[in-house]
Amino acid sequence: MALIDDFNAAVAHSKELTKRPSNEELLDLYALFKQATEGDVTGERPGGFDFKAIAKFDAWASRKGTDKEQAMQQYIELVEKLHQNYA
């Protein structure tokens, strides 16, 4: 249970950054969050000109095969790193 508590605290902590992380860092946060909470990406890759949706899908898909606990731990570590750089 401690990992889930730490993960939930990191999610709350990620919203307290005073500066905006880079787009790549935000995509990493998104992908790790989705992998930790939902598992592997499902559905088809968005098409057309919805570049934001495509980037988010690709970021999540890049984490395919990572188990939920690993994704939670990586998310926690990323939030700690971002907090050092952007708090």
Characterise the protein shown here.
- The chain has one domain: Acyl-CoA Binding Protein.
- The longest helix has 19 residues, at 68-86.
- Helix content is 68%, strand content 0%.
- Helix 1 runs parallel beside helix 4, helix 2 packs across helix 3 (51-61) and helix 2 runs antiparallel to helix 4.
- The protein has 87 residues and is mainly alpha-helical.
Helix and strand layout, with pairings?
Blueprint lengths: L1 H13 L8 H16 L12 H11 L6 H19 L1
Helix pairs in contact: 1-4, 2-3, 2-4
Features:
4 helices; Acyl-CoA Binding Protein; 0% strand; mainly alpha; 87 residues
The CATH topology corresponds to: Acyl-CoA Binding Protein
Note the overall shape. flat
CATH classification, class level: Mainly Alpha
Helix content: 55-70%
Give the class from helix and strand content and strand pairing.
mainly alpha
Report the sheet with the most strands, covering strand number, pairing sense and barrel closure. Answer: none
Please give the CATH architecture.
Answer: Up-down Bundle
The total strand number stands at 0
> Which H/E pattern describes the elements?
HHHH
How far apart the termini lie comes to 27 Å
Provide the number of structural domains. 1
Question: What proportion strand?
Answer: under 5%
Radius of gyration: 13 Å
Mean pLDDT, nearest integer? 96
> Which spans have pLDDT < 50 for at least 5 consecutive residues?
none
The total count of helices amounts to 4
